[in-house]
Amino acid sequence: VQLKRNVQRLWWRRFVTEREDMVGMDAAIVTHPTIWKAAGHVDNFVDPLMECSACHTRVRPDKAIEEATGTAPDSALTLEQLGLAAQRANVTCPKCGLRAFSAPRHFNLLCRTSFGQQGEEAFLRPETAQGIFVNFAAIVGTVRRALPFGVAQIGKAFRNEISPRNFLFRTREFDQMEIEFFCEPSEASTHFARWVSDYHAWLMAMGLRPDSLRLVEYERSRLAHYAAATTDIEFHFPFGWGELMGIANRTDHDLRQHSAACGRELKFQDPRNPQRAPFFPHVIEPSIGLDRLVFALLCDAYHEETYRAANGESAQRLVLRLHPELAPVRFAVLPLVKNNEDLVSKARKLAHDLRLAASPFEHVVEFDASGSIGKRYRRFDEIGTPFCVTVDHESLRDDAVTVYERDTQQQVRLGVDELLRVARRGGGDFSSASTRAP
Ligand code: ATP
Known about the structure:
The protein is α+β, with helices and mostly antiparallel strands. It is 32% helix and 27% strand. The chain contains 14 helices and 20 strands. The chain has a seven-stranded mixed sheet with strand order 1-8-9-13-12-11-10. The chain has a five-stranded mixed sheet with strand order 17-16-18-19-20, sandwiched between helices. It has a three-stranded antiparallel sheet with strand order 2-7-6. Helix 1 packs across helix 10. The longest helix has 18 residues, at 188-205. The radius of gyration is 26 Å and the shape is globular.
């Protein structure tokens, strides 16, 4: 939870509060069917599905073919062609192992619910984006922005996925971090290119390795009917390359669709040029799944290493090299031994002071007294804690502590005052780790 919160916090800071052209919003999760009819989801938000004739397990033929052959089938294949391709690829049922499937059909991924006293039909949103479009008039009437400007939102999305799998990669309930960036139609391609490169750079600053990422530009035939351009940023997950996020140039499709459905023109009036007729701005949409990003960050941070222990022998450790700003536990405070009242109470006090000092940055501080110091260092290496602070007998006399740094395994002696000062600034310049926020 804390890792997720840290990712959200850094995202919000990087893409909302550090920019002058972004605002945040929080739209409804349960939404009226008209929204999804207008957005095209009621008719088109479908995946192909086929069912095992023996045990009725449902599989997605396109993903099953990709798993069996290592290559995704052409997205333009008809359902019939997909069925034949699944036969050729010898796709078997993941549950009973048989190879007898029904013909593929379309399956709508919208999650239905009912709402209100009459139990009217409603949908759980499958993406946060449409909430921004349907609130467009309220947003522009409130925030007084000229183009270009963007609206950012973090929130739950629900999809009735046919085969949720691969840990956090595909779940039926997940969090998205989405931006709709509204701009002049003539500037859309420039903004699109900028968002692709900004996001790519940010993902690397967050700790993803350059060779774990690749940009996949969609060819014209693969583009959704509303998109003028789409680029996915893919990550090399343990099961292979998969979409981490997508950036799409959605033109003015959504605002036009919702305008037609609600009978009110969701157009933009240029505040700098009142003579100009209201027009539909174009929109660039960078959309990323928070859970997929957390999964990717965990994958690239995970290291099994050999190091030279204090006794000169080689030893193994498992270390999560998360950026210090992302680490769920920022500081661990360790009394050297657990059965010395003075050490324990000094360490508890220091943990408390560190918590207060670090609280504006949401840095978690843990207190841990059990096991040898070496064992405790390993425990905190494993969860990516960048700094372990040991309180020893000497600390009772000189009010100084030993700070162990996860990445270099170096230890420095530091006054408690100095440690608190650094924690209050949200930094950690007593270490060699880069502590600048991504
Ligand atoms: P996929 O092809 O993997 O189903 P998609 O192209 O349907 O993904 P989008 O509709 O573009 O995904 O959603 C934007 C982002 O939301 C994705 O890039 C991904 O990070 C995230 N996302 C989508 N579906 C899921 C899911 N079922 N579980 C977790 N994250 C998801």
